[in-house]
Write a structure and sequence with these properties.
Layout lengths: L2 H9 L10 H4 L3 H8 L3 E4 L11 E9 L6 E10 L7 H21 L1 E5 L5 E4 L2 E2 L4 H12 L6 H9 L6 H14 L4 E2 L4 E2 L2 E4 H11 L2 H7 L11 H20 L3 H10 L4 H10 L5 H10 L6
Parallel strand pairs: 4-9
Antiparallel strand pairs: 1-2, 2-3, 4-5, 5-6, 7-8
């Protein structure tokens, strides 16, 4: 932008971190595009704020190709004297270029399995990774907005005495393996990610207990020492246990118990749901007193 427009933008706080939603500054093109997911043009005194009555703004939303959520807005602003009917087309073209780049980026695919036996696939091909590298990818999948090197170090190692250089070397290797689709400052995954643990979390959020238990094929990264991942695992297991105690589906609980014989929460919930005269009830009483669950 010109020095004149940049100075004008700063005077009305149209800068990074500025708040331009309608409830704060009234009618403006950026807010309209965010709200409607459509292109918009606001001319001169159509703006609510008198301080930008000299402006004309063209805005076009950036839509995620897969989720269809609005990621942001391209806004082109100038003075009303420089108004051009091609302004809205220019904003739309910029947004389209960004969306095309996102689509190409998301065609790359990373799949992480962290329940049972950990495995990572990139574009359908299994990767030979160390347990530590799988942990790093899992942490970044759980933190899609990214982490600084220091925060990633704490999440991965906690109080363990490991040099920062070791982590930097791991990140360098992962960047090579993923073809550069690992961003830095902050560290983040620049690729579409699917993961069994994310799907299980989403299923629990939506109240789909059966789906969550079906995805839970084994302990989440059972051997990890990462304080962040251990805490996340504890939280997930607590949520699963809570969901088990709330479900009314005995068949679901029996199926879960078949895969996890030591699932005491499933046993106790079945004993609550099944009448005492049910043939399985007495078996459960004996089962809960068995050495296997003691």
């Amino acid at each position: 932008s010109s020095a004149q427009m940049q100075s004008a933008a700063e005077r009305v706080h149209f800068v990074q971190g500025g708040q331009w939603r309608e409830e704060f500054v009234g009618t403006n093109a950026l807010a309209l595009s965010l709200k409607t997911q459509q292109s918009s043009c606001v001319f001169s005194n159509e703006h609510y704020m008198e301080s930008i009555h000299d402006w004309v703004c063209y805005a076009a939303p950036i839509i995620d190709p897969y989720s269809k959520q609005t990621l942001g807005v391209v806004d082109l602003s100038t003075t009303w004297k420089n108004h051009n009917t091609l302004g809205i087309l220019a904003a739309e073209r910029c947004a389209s270029i960004i969306q095309s780049a996102l689509l190409e980026q998301q065609r790359q695919h990373l799949h992480i399995r962290a329940f049972s036996t950990p495995q990572v696939k990139f574009n359908g091909k299994s990767l030979l990774l160390t347990p530590r590298q799988i942990e790093i990818l899992t942490i970044l999948a759980l933190c899609p907005h990214g982490l600084t090197l220091e925060h990633l170090y704490q999440a991965l190692y906690g109080e363990r005495k490991v040099s920062m250089g070791t982590l930097k070397a791991e990140m360098s290797q992962l960047r090579d393996i993923l073809g550069g689709l690992l961003g830095s400052r902050p560290y983040r995954l620049l690729v579409h990610v699917e993961a069994d643990f994310l799907q299980a979390e989403q299923a629990l959020d939506a109240g789909y207990v059966a789906s969550a238990l079906q995805l839970y094929t084994g302990v989440f990264l059972a051997k990890t020492e990462s304080p962040f991942l251990c805490a996340w695992r504890d939280c997930l297991e607590s949520r699963l246990s809570d969901a088990i105690f709330k479900t009314q589906e005995t068949d679901l609980l029996l199926k879960h118990l078949a895969h996890f014989p030591e699932a005491i929460d499933a046993v106790e919930r079945l004993m609550e749901l099944l009448p005492s005269e049910h043939p399985a009830h007495q078996l459960l009483v004996k089962y809960i007193d068995s050495p296997k669950l003691s």
